Amino acid sequence: MGHEKTIIRQHWGDHKMNQPLKHDGDEQYSINCQAVNNFVVRFANVNGTGSASANNMFAKAVLRMGIPVSAKNIFPSNIQGLPTWYEVRISEDNFLARRGGASELVVAMNAQSLDEDIASVASGGFLLYDSSRALADNQFRDDISYLAIPISAICQKEYQDPRHRQLFKNVIYVGALAALLNIEFDVLKSLVADQFRGKDKLITPNIYALELGYQYANQHFTCPLSIKVERRDLINNRIMVDGNTASGLGAVYGGATVVGWYPITPSTSVVEKFASYCQRLRIDPASGKRNYALVQAEDELAAIGIAIGASWNGARSFTATSGPGISLMTEFLGLAYFAEVPLVLINVQRAGPSTGMPTRTQQSDVLTCAYASHGDTKHVLLFPQDPAECFEFSALSFDLADQLQTPVIIMSDLDLGMNDHLCDEFSWDDTQEYQLGKVLSAEQLDEVEDYARYKDTDGDGICYRTLPGTHPDKGAFFTRGTSRNEYAGYTEKSAEYVANMDRLNKKFATASALVPQPEITEGKKIAPVGLIYFGTSSHAIDESRQQLKDHGLAIDTLRIKAFPFNEKISQFIERHANIFVIEQNRDGQMRALLMNELTVDPARLNAILNYDGLPVTSTFIVEKVLGTLARQQKSQVS
After folding, report:
1. If we measure between CA atoms, which residue out of 161, 124, 180, 134 comes closest to residue 15?
2. Measured on CA atoms in the order 536, 538, 539, 540, is the torsion positive or negative?
3. Beta-ladder partners of 320
4. Per-residue pLDDT tens for 532-552?
5. CB under 8 Å to 260, separation ≥6 — which residues?
6. How far apart are CA 619 and CA 101, in angstroms?
7. Sign of the four-CA dihedral 616, 582, 577, 554
8. What is the pLDDT of residues 328-368, one digit of tens each?
9. Which one-letter DSSP state was computed for residue 287?
10. Burial class of 12 by CB neighbour count within 10 A (0 to 12, 13 to 18, 19+)
11. C-alpha–C-alpha distance, residues 72 and 422, integer Å
């Protein structure tokens, strides 16, 4: 990033802003950041003031100019009043992980966090703030430029309704940013028209508020700034959407008709989106009746019980929750595993333990979900990296659950679920048929002389099941959570119990060939360093690879998409002298799972652990890799 000398005029009316920078009349000079389509804008707002929609409009405007963008909403767990931040990374290099560090431009609209926000501006960067209230002398830095806009005063003059004064503050600064950063104003107008389609009365006042900010910035500052955007054509067929929306739609396409749920942040919108799509896609055209059932239960225990009951009865059903809900659902997960009832559970992980940080992200339920319930259990886990995979894996999970007759848990997280991400368009083959697995029909039961629900006929650990009411007098069995023999009869015979547990283990081995396979990137020559990662940690990998290459270090990578693991992961570990496992939790849960399931020497796996509740950055990964290698080299020398 370079720097240039930029003129910043900062006054309103006849009132000249008090600035510590050297100035000549109204002109002030400072050394400013210089960047085109490669910088971060950080918005600092008060939660509950309507800022999220305005900030989202800003991100979408950049996107519509053909420039890759990512947005991270960092919000508190209360409803209203506390500080909230919204980071927009603009990167024509398609580096869309959270960058971290200081931001080139900070929009400071919250007096509570103003000192922190001023400190978060990169040297040579810009602070846009509401100058209706003067800054204190100690809030001025010599190495940044202050963009003073009297937003509250403008709203006070233009609007009589207090609610409008608050809401249009946000729209005014978006208009100002359009002038300052070279965003095409027609793009913003089209976004407003799209957002308020069907509410035409709201279009004109919003465009007027945008114009107020746009005109003020053009009149009082040199526009555009030394950081700006320029139109590109880099989006191709990608879309911007959040993972929870994608998961909800994927459940519809996967054939789900029943959901039992209890609201919990950050998974609630999965079911809300599922319901909204069902209202459009699951209505019988002839009768107008709903072809789905959505049951809000009294707690998480009841929610998963509803889903298990519906699945046992032949419906495709699911529930969605987060860490605290997983803790409550573990006993029922054990029942579904042992009784072999299909179930899909979407877990949008958040920072724990206990209540933890409900609105911060982590990958901290890996071990809990892999072995959920008491006794020996193993559950199928899917790790989507973006909304496209949330859609794909959500739909796939119902096939896997039916084929394997077991719970399948989708391991999303708050960053993926609640933030918008740029991803490939969703795809679906309309000729695709649902894979229901080994379900016997009445005709098939007529051909069976001796039906045994838990008999491994095919040697893959998966038995043939029946649905209630399939046949008038054949195929019935007792579904139980107690130990049973092949005919579902109660038993405490050790040999029969062991045979059943071994068969369940065989079924889990069969699952390793059905789940999504790991994604491996290797050069013609095996690199000395291999990175293993999963889920949303993938967002920082391409940038990490480039930064490590700049340090002269070649790396290979493997992305885990599912558990159970297969031999490809073991082989990748064996091929590389140094393995790093990147995850977003404190205790290295994926590393522990790899060690336990693949019997890997712990010394072979270096842990890179990010658990501050914010998405992992490439800077963090690169520093950990280089630091570990430096310590290893020093140890070898000594």
Report:
1. 134
2. positive
3. 346
4. 999 999 999 999 999 999 999
5. 295, 297, 302, 303, 304, 305, 306, 307, 310, 317, 319
6. 9
7. negative
8. 999 999 999 999 999 999 999 999 999 999 999 999 999 99
9. T
10. middle
11. 12
